[in-house]
Each structure stands twice: as structure tokens, then as C-alpha cells.
Amino acid sequence: MTASPPTRRLSRLRALQIGGLSLAALSLGGFAVLGTPGPAPLRAARVDGSVPHFTLLLAGRDIVYCYYRTPCKNQDQRTGLVQPPNTDTLMLVKVDGTQVSVLNIPRDTNVGEFDPQESVAAQKVNSRYWSGGPVALTRAVETITGERVDAYVVVRTDYVARVIDALGGLDVTVPGGGIEWVDRAAGVDLRLPAGPHHLNGEQAVLFLRVRKGFGDDYGRIDHQKQALTQLAARLKSPQGLAALPTILGGIGNGVETNVDPGLLTTLLPHLPNLKLAFATLPTRAIPGTFNLAPDREALARVWGRQAGASAPPAAPDVMVRVVDASGANLGVGLERALRALGYTRVTVEAAPASREASQIFTGQSVEAANELAGALGLPRLQGERFPVSANEVGILLGADARVSLAALADLGRGGQRPLLSHVPQTENP
């Protein structure tokens, strides 16, 4: 597993974004043929017949402040600012038919080879939006990942909050010890005791910025992935379709993009079948700095060259840890199904019922996790802070599994319903 980067200093007025349009754009916005703003238009996304194929950059942009605790009236102005706007949340989304692979890029990732003669801060990817706009940010991400980027979407915090509200809020579980984050200079007042919570948009944005209880930036990235899994699932519901006016209405009011929203109908038929997989760009610390060098070789293993590819069979000796928060005792049925398929090391932990989305999580056992994710029809998350060891895959069963994996109830009672890869999916998670 990639070593933890050095501890970073918090910036008080920086409002970290969660890439809120990612829940919209990874399913709705980025399928489009691109517009041509500015002197350097991006290339058009590829569409084979009615099946979308494209790569989209999603960036969360800071709110800009003109005075102490006072946002600028014109959020697009570039002079007279207390602090320039960075893009601390970056996600590269690759859509290949119904497979959606999301790569989180840490904000301190260096663009190109590190140059000790240049400013350390200016070499970080999160500074490129301010210095050169969305096109420069897009080119920087292409340099880091080696991937072609077809389009960009840059969003602000206020838009993120509106989208989360339109999708019904966010269900989260606060770790032991709770969260208390009060920062008068930044206008932050978030106090949540340990346990489950339903958050509105404004609360959710603050929760997804906080690092207490989640480790460092990598831990924060991972619980942002979990939030996107939950919100993206809602796009497939009537509630999600009802939220489309809010999602698309943000363009020009919190959203900067070269995606044509008029092509929405191109992707709508594919929404029920979209499958998500998340990963974090592997990096190495650059000695003497807070900057991170991308590890291209590791990236090829965990995301780049495997996106959209069929996963090889799972190793029979992989450990599987099931956390059953379904509220319906589905873990027993899942354990029985897994053992019948040859998984000999399976443990089940009961947890309080949770509305968090069901998901597969892993550290290094990516191939085995892909196999299980495909069999169960669940999103796979790979990150730096999930509580799994080497050669272990975790499965979280949330309340949504009562519908999407309903056949597990019969298996838990000793029924003879088909196992795992043939479990009927009455509703996508």
C-alpha cells in the first residue's frame, strides 16, 4: 500500500469541494460532445452508436473571498481576493459503456518532474486552475495520469450543497468520538456525535471536508467516494430524475464546463446499468516537500489499464470480511453463498442498520474485489484508509441490499436460490 504522505497544513479559508457534479456528471453530464470555449478546445468524446465512451475531469473549486468571511459577489473575479481559488478535489472519470471508473487525484500531486528551482506550490496540480483556467488544469491531469481527457466540469461548494439537497441529503456514520469542527474565520460550525446522521447539503459539504476521525487527505478522499456511491445510486431513482433541473441548472451558476447538457437523453437509458469503481492515484512523497509524485506503474495495476476490462477470477484464498448493516441479517446468506463458491475464509460482523450504500472495499486485493463487485453488482472502492489488510476484501451491506440482494434472505434461511453471480437484481443499488 502506498505510504502515507507527510501531514499537511490546513488552509483556513479554503472550502474544499467534493466534486459535487461528479454524482451528476459521471452519470449525466460527461457523455456530451464537447463545446469549444476559449482558444484551445478539447477533443470530442467518442460515442459508438448509443454507447458512451469518454473521460471527464471533475474538479471542486474553492469559494473566493474578498474580505474576512465575506465571499466575493462575483465568484469569477481574479483580483482583490483574500486567497486565490484552488481545486483541492480532483476526479478523473472514465466511462466505457456502463462501466464508470473514478480516479481521485490528491491535491498535492506534482505536475511533471519536480523542479527544485521552481515554486513548490506552483507545481501542485491544485494550483493549475488559478494559473491557467480549466484547460490548463485538464492538461495537467493528462500529464499526471497519461490519460486523454475529453471534457471538464468545475463546481463550487454552493452548487454541491444544492445538488445534495435535491437528491435527498446524505446518510453518514460519524466515527467514535464524534466530530466538532468550529472555525469562525472560515464560517464553519459542525458538531456531530458518533453514530448515524442524515445531513442536509450544507452539513454534508462540511462533513466531506473534515479530516478528524478519517486520518489525512487520503482518508477524506475515501469517505468522499462513499458519499458519491450513495448519491450516484439515487440518480437511478425517480428522486434522481426529479433532481435533474437542479443538477443541470447549475451551469453558469456554480458550474463551469465545456459539456453540452443538451445531450442528456444520450445517457438516460444507461443509468440503471451503470457500475462504479473508485480508486486513488498511487503516489510517492517527494523528499523535502509536501508534493507527491504519481506512481504510474501502480496506477496501471489499480485503475488505468484495468478500467473497463474483465477481471480475472478471484484468488480462492482471499479473506472476505462482511459487515452486515442491512438490518435484515443478509450477511448469513452472503457467507453461505461465498463459501459455496470456494471462499474458505469468510467472516461476518453485525452492525447497526445503515442507509449508506452497499459496496466492496479493498486495499491491494483489487482483482478479487473486482470479481466480487461484478458478481454482486456493487461499486468497488479502493483507497488508502479502508480497514482491510493485505489479501482481504470487505463487503458492506447497507439497507439498500434488502432490495438489490433480496435473494440473500432466502439463502440465510437455508433456501435454494441461485448463488452470488446469479442472484437476481430486482433493483440496482
From TrEMBL:
Cell envelope-related transcriptional attenuator domain segment(s): 86-236
InterPro entries membership: LytR/CpsA/Psr_C (IPR027381), LytR/CpsA/Psr_CW_biosynth (IPR050922), LytR_CpsA_psr (IPR004474)
Residues in coiled coil: none
Span of domain LytR/CpsA/Psr regulator C-terminal: 317-400
PANTHER family attached to this UniProt entry: POLYISOPRENYL-TEICHOIC ACID--PEPTIDOGLYCAN TEICHOIC ACID TRANSFERASE TAGU
Family that this chain belongs to: Belongs to the LytR/CpsA/Psr (LCP) family.
Name of the protein in question: LytR family transcriptional regulator
